[in-house]
Amino acid sequence: MFRNKKRGFTLVELLVVIAIIGILIGMLLPAVQQVREAARRTQCMNNLRQSTLAALNYESAHMTFPGGNFYGGGPWGHSFWVQMLPFIEQGNLARGYDLTTGGWTGGAGNTNPNKIWLTENRTAMPFLLCPSSDLPQFPVNYSGYDSDDFAGTSNGDDDIAGMLACYAGVMGSSEHRTAFEARGGIASKGGILVKQSAEFENPGVGFGEISDGSSNTILLAEQSAWMFNDDGERVDCRADGNHGFNMGGSYWNIRPFNLISIRHPINELVISRAVGSSGNVGPNRPIHSAHPGGAVVSVGDGSVHFLNDDTTLQVLFDLADKDDGNVVSVLE
C-alpha cells in the first residue's frame, strides 16, 4: 500500500511569494494614494466652487461683487467672507456677527462681541478648508516668536478668532497700474475683490468693470501649503495672518487681510524669496497648495481650475487683473 505524502511550501517558495506580494503592494500603494489625492483635489475644487457661487449670488443681489473688505466701526474692517455668509448657508453666523464694530478679534483684553461669538461657537466651515492641507484650522498662540518667523499675529489661546481659510481673495497683481505700496509689500486694485478705503460707500466691483472678461479673471485662490523660513522651519503663511477668515483690512495703514496681490509664481514656498509675504501681514503671500503640481483657483464666471506650477508669472499677472487688456484664458 502506498501513502500519499502531503507536500508543503518550502522556505524558498514562501519567500518568493512574500516578495511578490510586497512588490504588488509597492506598486499598488502609489496608485491608491494618487486616487485619494485626486478625490481630495476634487473636494477642494468643490469647496472653492461653493464659495465662488456665493460671490456670484452676492453679485446678483447687490449688482456688484463683495468688496475686499467692509468697514463698520473702528479702523479694522470685515473680510469679503463675512459679506458672503448669508449666501453660503451661514445665515445664523451672519445674524450673530456685529458689522457695526471692528473686525479684529485677537489680542488680550479685547472685548469685541464678534470675538465672543466666534469663540463660543468655534465655527468650522468645511468649505474654507482644503482636505489635503494639514495647516491649523484656528488661530495659534505664537507668543515669543518674531513676526517675520511665523508670518502672523500672536493671538493668545483664549483669543480665538474665526477659523483660518485655505483660500484667499485676489485683489489684482503687483504690476497693475493701480499698484501701490502697502505695509510689507505691494497691494493692487486691479482685481475683482478690491481692498477699499473707508470713504468708499459702495466698494464692490461690477461685471461691467471686468473688461478682460469674468472667465479670464481670478476671483479666489488656494493657500493650503506650509511655507518655510531660511532655517527650513515650516511657517503658516496665509493671507489672514492668523487673524481668522473674518478679519478685514485697515484704512489707516493700508494693511490687507484675507486678500493677496499676485507678485510671485505658484508655490513659491520660501518666505525670503517671496518678498512682501512676511510679517503682520504681507499683501504678496503666494498662491500655494498642498496638492502636487499646482493650485486651485476660481474665476469670475464661477468656474474652478487647477493651475500648474509652470504657469508663468506674466500669465498670473494677466489673470489677476480685470482690465489690463491682456486677455489670457485659464483654459489655455
From TrEMBL:
Pfam families in alphabetical order: N_methyl (PF07963), SBP_bac_10 (PF07596)
Residue intervals of the DUF1559 domain: 33-311
PROSITE patterns named in the record: PROKAR_NTER_METHYL
InterPro entries (alphabetical): DUF1559, N_methyl_site, Pilin-like
SUPFAM superfamilies, per the entry: Pili subunits
Transmembrane segments: 12-32
Keyword Transmembrane helix: yes
Ion transport as UniProt keyword: no
Alphabetized UniProt keyword annotations: Membrane, Transmembrane, Transmembrane helix
Residue runs in coiled coils: none
PANTHER family from the UniProt entry: GENERAL SECRETION PATHWAY PROTEIN G, TYPE II SECRETION SYSTEM PROTEIN H
NCBIfam families (alphabetical): IV_pilin_GFxxxE (TIGR02532)
Name listed for the protein in its UniProt record: Fimbrial protein
Organism of origin: Mariniblastus fucicola
Lineage, uppermost ranks: Bacteria, Pseudomonadati, Planctomycetota, Planctomycetia, Pirellulales
